[in-house]
Amino acid sequence: MPTSLRSSKNVTLTPITHMKSKTTPIWFGGRVPAIHHMPIEGTLSHHLGVEFLEAGPDFLRGRMPVDHRTRQPFGALHGGASVALAETLMSYAANLCLEHGRKYGVGLEINANHIRSVREGWVTGTARPVHLGTMTHVWQCDICDEAGNIVCTSRMTIAVLDRKRAKESDASLNDIFRASKRAK
Length: 184
Known about the structure:
two-stranded antiparallel ribbon; alpha+beta; Thiol Ester Dehydrase, Chain A; 184 residues; six-stranded antiparallel β-sheet; globular; single chain
């Protein structure tokens, strides 16, 4: 997978990464995690054929087929399928940065810009952090076709929650964030 992306005007785009170091792993425990190639059976990402490919010091990469499961009626990759791939990668990556059993991340907001269509083959997404805070993460995922052309870019904000607090409370996510803002 290229470290830079090609736009429709053959301009080289470098994926955004604001993290200070690409050599120090961002993952909880300080080591690059082993990646299981298939998502959990019975999930949307499993149904769409998402495969996890690799994790590096500051990225998680996966791919998805462009086939009958992921195309819209006009034959091109469905934008919602691109967002599902991006959210799968960014959510999974965010949770790999958190202490399992104590913290977990949930999506607050996601957006996507669909740049070009794809009709067949595979698309590959690479998720990287823009911000890793104690209460929120911001992640970006660039999705490319097999030629390395950017297809979609997506950004997601993730809330970092305490497992114990979430289990003991019936509060909605909005109530939790309002309380955290008042505590500051």
